Inverse folding.
């Protein structure tokens, strides 16, 4: 009995520590949308993810979506939809290949209603419904103001078309330059979503544990149920695109942030200052009246002077 009581107390303490830790962190890990080595079970499958195309699994290192070979497509998709209203996805990845100035094309992180459908948008379908985060390493248009590699977000509604020839510039939601390819430091991405609040992407690619904000967009609307996916493709040029680890957590809602006002131009700022504009208008009217009055007095004096000369 004493041994049983001690065991129950120990279990109770451990359970209490777990609950307290979750309450402190304000996050609970979703195993259904998280992925770690060795990635597969004894049946060479994963309970929560499907993989296919040219994807290859190295149980000690990574899920390689594409190898450094031309014309490859690989994917990794969650089997269950992500239904949490507020969540954080932290991704550890690696993109590399032979040195040189030509490599590509990149990979994508998806929160989409479509899954496991191969297509031209970094290995997945076009006209998707949901969110795509594109880690783009090849410049197709050659006329962008930003450099590559480039990380870009696109919010699809099932009708919007991602234009590969223009690298999606016409449908970009937000983006940033990020030299994430061929790094010796561990490269990571952290996507945070609060429903009816904001979407934020942070990157680690310069130093360990040093995160930089790529973008933060207010009030992004996602479908109620989306699948978490990762896809990549190569064309005539190629790269290794590796997914190393994925950790997805639910989050407790935070206060809604007020949107920053859009800066006004100088012209609009002047027109909005009602008191100053009225005083300036009044000053101009008084000045004009003074000028007219002065001209009238001068004219009367001139006329009087002329009359005196006639006599």
């Amino acid at each position: 009995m004493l041994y049983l009581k001690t065991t129950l107390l120990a279990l109770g303490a451990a359970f209490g520590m777990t609950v307290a830790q979750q309450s402190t962190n304000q996050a609970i890990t979703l195993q259904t949308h998280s992925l770690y080595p060795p990635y597969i079970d004894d049946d060479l499958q994963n309970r929560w993810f499907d993989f296919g195309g040219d994807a290859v699994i190295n149980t000690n290192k990574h899920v390689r979506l594409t190898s450094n070979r031309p014309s490859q497509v690989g994917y990794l998709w969650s089997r269950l939809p992500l239904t949490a209203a507020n969540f954080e996805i932290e991704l550890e990845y690696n993109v590399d290949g032979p040195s040189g100035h030509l490599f590509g094309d990149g990979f994508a992180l998806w929160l989409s209603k479509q899954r496991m459908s191969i297509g031209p948008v970094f290995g997945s379908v076009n006209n998707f419904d949901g969110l795509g985060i594109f880690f783009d390493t090849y410049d197709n248009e050659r006329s962008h103001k930003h450099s590559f590699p480039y990380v870009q977000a696109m919010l699809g509604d099932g009708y919007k078309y991602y234009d590969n020839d223009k690298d999606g510039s016409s449908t970009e939601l937000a983006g940033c330059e990020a030299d994430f390819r061929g790094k010796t430091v561990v490269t990571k991405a952290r996507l945070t979503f609060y429903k009816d609040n904001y979407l934020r992407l942070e990157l680690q690619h310069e130093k360990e544990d040093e995160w930089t904000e790529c973008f933060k967009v207010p009030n992004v609307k996602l479908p109620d149920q989306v699948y978490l996916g990762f896809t990549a493709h190569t064309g005539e040029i190629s790269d290794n695109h590796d997914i190393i680890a994925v950790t997805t957590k639910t989050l407790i809602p935070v206060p809604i942030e007020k949107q920053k006002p859009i800066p006004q131009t100088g012209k609009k700022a002047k027109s909005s200052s009602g008191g100053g504009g009225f005083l300036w208008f009044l000053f101009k009217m008084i000045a004009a009246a003074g000028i007219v009055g002065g001209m009238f007095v001068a004219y009367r004096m001139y006329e009087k002077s002329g009359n005196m000369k006639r006599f």
About this structure: The longest strand covers residues 240-251. Residues 1-24, 262-283, 296-311 have pLDDT under 50 and may be disordered. The chain has three helices and 17 strands.
